[in-house]
Design goal:
Distance between the termini of chain A: 66 Å
Shape of chain B: globular
Order of helices and strands of chain B: HHHHHHHHHH
Order of helices and strands of chain A: HHEEEEHEHEEEHEHEHEEHH
Helix content of chain B: over 70%
Number of strands of chain A: 12
Oligomer: heterodimer
Largest interface: A-B, 35 and 28 residues
Structural class of chain B: mainly alpha
Chain lengths: ~270, ~230
Amino acid sequence: MRIAARIIVLACLLTLVAAMPALAGKLDDIKSRGTLVAGVKDSQRPFGFVDEKTNQIVGFEIDLMAALAQRLGVKLDTKPVTSSTRIPMLTQGAVDILAATMTHKKEREDQVDFSITYFMTGQKLLVKKDGGIKSVADLDGKKVGSVKGSTSEQNVKKAQPGCTVISFETYPEAFLALKQGKVQAMTTDESILVGIKNSDDKPEAWDIVGDYISPEPYGLGVPENDSKFRDYVNLALMDMWAKGEYQKIYEKWFGKDTKDYIPLTWKMEYWP
Amino acid sequence: MAYQFDFGQVVSGEYGQWLLSGLSTTLHISGIAIVLSLGLGTMVAVMRLSKVRPLVWAAAIFTEFFRNTPLLVQIFFWYFGSYSVLPEAVNQWLYARDFEFACGVIALTVYTAAFIAEEIRSGIFSIPKNQLEASRACGLSFIQAMAYVILPQAFRVIIPPLISQFLNLIKNSSLVMTIGVMDLTYMARQIEAHTFHGFEAFTVSTMMYLTISLIVSLGVNLYNRYVLHVRSR
C-alpha cells in the first residue's frame, strides 16, 4: 500500500515538473502574470541607480522598461542585477528581460538573445587635461586603467599593443588611480566616462579624448530561442523611436540640460 | 531554458591561454610571497623572543597589527595609501614599473608573516627552555643558539600549521586582482565577462587552485616525513 502511495505521489510530482516549463513563451507568461520583471543596474548613473530621495531605482534604462511595460499593458517590477549575476538570472527565469548596460557581443550569444541596439556608445579615454595624451597612439608604454567585467580591456590592448592595462573593481578606484598618476588614462564607454568626469570636484581638469576605440552597442537581454518575445521587444523599441518617445527619454537623461550630456548622434535600426 | 555548459570554449584557444597566464601569475606571486613571508615571519618571531625591549615591542605591534586587519584593506593601503607618503619622484619611478605586482607581494608577505611568526613562536615555546640556556652556556650567541639548536627543532613541530599558512596565502593571492594583478581569479572573471560562461571558467580555476594546494601540501608533507623525521632518528 505504502509503496503504491509513494508511486502515485512521485507520478504526480513528475507530471508537475514536466508541465512546469510553460511552453507558452515569455510574452504570455508576462501577460498572465501582469508584471514585467526587468533586471537593471542599481549603481550605474544615469542608466540605473537608486534615487537618494525616494529610494527607488531610476534611470534611462528604467524609463525604457516602463515604456515597454506600458505597451504590454502590465506593471513594471525592477530587480537589481550586477554584471556577473545578470545572465544566470535571465537563464533561470528570475527576470524576463535585462536592461543592464550590456554590450551586444557575438561571444555572448550562446547564453541569451539580444534585442536591437537601444543605446550606442563607444570606448574612449579619460585623461588629465594637458597630460600629453590626445589619442590611443600616445599610450605606447603607458598604463591604462579600466574596470573588470567590461569589454574595454581587450579593445584598448588591440588598438595599442604597447600599453599595459590595469583593471580595477569599480570605476571610482580606476579614477583614483588616474588621479594619483598610477595610470595615465582610463578607458571605458564614453557614456560612463562622462558620468565619472562630472562626479569630480573639478570636472574641467579632465578630458575625454580620442576617436572611438571600439563601438559598444547596448542590447536588451532576452531569453534564448523565444523569437515571439524578442520580436515584440524589437518592434516596441522601433515604435518608441518612431513616435519620438525614445528621444524624450534620452533627452531626460542625456540631454543638454543634464550633467551627463551626450548628443544623440546615431539612429536606431529600423525595419521597413 | 537551462544554462548551457560549454567547457570547450573556456579551456581552449584564447581563453585557455588567459587561464594559463593567470595560473602562472598566481604561482609567481604566491611563490615569492611564501619565501619572503617565511623569512620575515622567522625574523619577527626571533625578535619577539629576544631580550631587547624595543625589538620585542616592534615585533608584537607588527604581529598584532597585520594579523588583525583585513587583507583586502592592507592591499588597498599599500597600493593607494603609499601615494601621499613617498615623494612624487619616487612615486613616478615606482608607477612606471610593475607596482601592482610588487604591492601584491608586499601585502601577502606581511599579512602571512604575522601569522607565521605566531606559529614559529609557539614552535619555539615547545622546545624545552633549558636547551637555549645550555647552548648559551656552551658559548653560542642568542642568534647562533636559535639558528643551530632551537629553530631546526621548532620548524619540525610546526610544519603542519605552516602548510596551512602557505595554502591560505595561495588562496588569499586571489585578492590581488583588486589592484589589477592579472591572476587566475582575475582571468576567470574576465572570461565570464567576455563569454558569459562564468560557471565553467570558475570551475576550471577552482580545480587549478585545488591542484596547486594539494601539490604544495603533499610536497611539504613528504619533506616533513622523509627529510626531517628520518634524519632525526
